[in-house]
Amino acid sequence: MEKIDETNVETEHQPSAVLALAWRELSVNDIESLMRIANEIHTELPESDNVFCERVKLFREGCLALVDLKTGQLYGYAITHPIRRGQPPGLNSLLTEIVPNADQYYIHDLAILPELHGRGFARECIEIVLENAKQFPTTGLVSVYGTAPFWGRFGFSPKEVDDVLRRKLMGYGEDATYLERSNDEYQRHTEVAKEML
Prior knowledge:
- By secondary structure, the chain is α+β, with helices and mostly antiparallel strands.
- Helix content is 29%, strand content 22%.
- The chain has a 7-stranded mixed sheet, with helices on both faces.
- The chain is globular and about 45 Å long.
- The two termini are 21 Å apart.
């Protein structure tokens, strides 16, 4: 699940001051701020703070925070972790563990506050995530809000799904689409994505 809009549209919420933003590892101490962002962006696809806390505890290296380096304020986040190929978790569900036989990297959520869209922060995050994902043959995600074309810039494309995954996707909304990319195409698609943004 993700909410990405990398257009250069100005919004009325543009920060008035220049921010020094960077991606860093997310911690459980960030969850309260993360929930404010999640509740603003994912009004139709809510998840509990327990889901995010669990992901950070199980696979902290896959959880990122976009923060102002001066104030520590959170402006975005990404939640990623290994799964069995084609078996993403249902919306608002706990994992209990990272399965030992995980063979796919999974982007669970990438959310950035609207006032920062179009500034390249999503691309930066995806580059970090895909670098981490290289130890797996593929990376998967559930695209929502019509963002499949955006993810296509990074080599993701729709895959056929079985009945189990189809039912799971229904929990993510009518437009939910399961996407995958081959991680051996990382370099080629990263260069194409940079040229397009």
